[in-house]
Design goal:
elongated; three-stranded antiparallel beta sheet; mainly alpha
Length: about 270
């Protein structure tokens, strides 16, 4: 399901883009290291910083407009053959049966999927709905969401260093604020977003390393296939290396019911 750039979330995307380029412009126009490099004819660092910002904006729109793993309803699929095929691949013993979604009337909701009431659709391996990208983070775009966070963090930290290099000393506090006011505002924005992105990236990398989603981590006591597991038990955890490898390097739809069955069977 393609996301329309001019549909829901258009204002959020415009705000993100404008804020990014206003801050970037401020760093280039003030007496920062970037400006000094330009004046000295050393263009390597300014060009690299500009390209990093462009890459972060590109990844933002990519993640924001990408299909996160929407599941078509039975009416759209036009038949129940795929449901029967799916159920035939799932071991029936010790595995919770596929649930029915009461919102979009999906007859068989795959394990780890959840209905997003904002997007009005079920999402495979649902992690969360991110209001900043105005899209769900799920099976198809989760890895790119983390790549985006990493690139965004690098751009923000570099911008933080550049902004600090442009702060000019003055004789009085009033004059200092007037001279550096716009750059201080940009510095405050960059600092706040740096902390937020750093925390988000750290949390997501931890959850990926244990093969757990944000939704599962926050609501495991209400999820049918997790609420009967122990506090430290995760039926999808294959070890840190395998979890990271599968997440970043394996691009396919996983039948989580099979992994759940194998894990619960081996635990007895």
């Amino acid at each position: 399901m393609a996301r329309n750039m001019f549909g829901a979330g258009f204002l959020v995307r415009v705000t993100h883009t404008l804020l990014t380029w206003v801050v970037t412009l401020a760093l280039f126009l003030h007496n920062t290291d970037l400006r000094k490099c330009e004046e000295q004819g050393e263009l390597l660092l300014p060009v690299l910083f500009f390209l990093l910002v462009v890459l972060s904006v590109f990844l933002y729109f990519m993640v924001s407009l990408m299909d996160p793993g929407f599941i078509l309803t039975d009416a759209v699929k036009g038949g129940s053959c795929s449901d029967e095929d799916m159920e035939s691949m799932i071991p029936q013993s010790s595995t919770p049966r596929l649930r029915r979604c009461g919102y979009c009337l999906l007859q068989q909701q795959p394990m780890r999927a959840k209905h997003c009431q904002t997007c009005k659709c079920c999402v495979r391996r649902f992690d969360h709905h991110c209001p900043w990208i105005e899209n769900c983070v799920g099976e198809r775009n989760h890895r790119w969401f983390i790549v985006y966070l990493l690139v965004q963090l690098l751009a923000l930290l570099w911008a933080l260093q550049i902004a600090l290099s442009g702060i000019s000393p003055s004789d009085t506090w009033g004059l200092w604020f007037r001279v550096n006011g716009f750059l201080l505002a940009a510095l405050a924005v960059v600092a706040v977003f740096s902390v937020v992105v750093l925390l988000l990236l750290g949390c997501h990398l931890y959850l990926v390393s244990i093969n757990c989603t944000t939704w599962e981590f926050m609501s495991r006591h209400r999820i049918s296939y997790l609420k009967n597991c122990g506090i430290e038990e995760n039926p999808f955890d294959r070890g840190v290396f395998c979890n990271l490898w599968d997440f970043f390097c394996i691009c396919r739809t996983v039948v989580w019911e099979q992994m759940y069955h194998k894990k619960t069977t081996n635990s007895f």
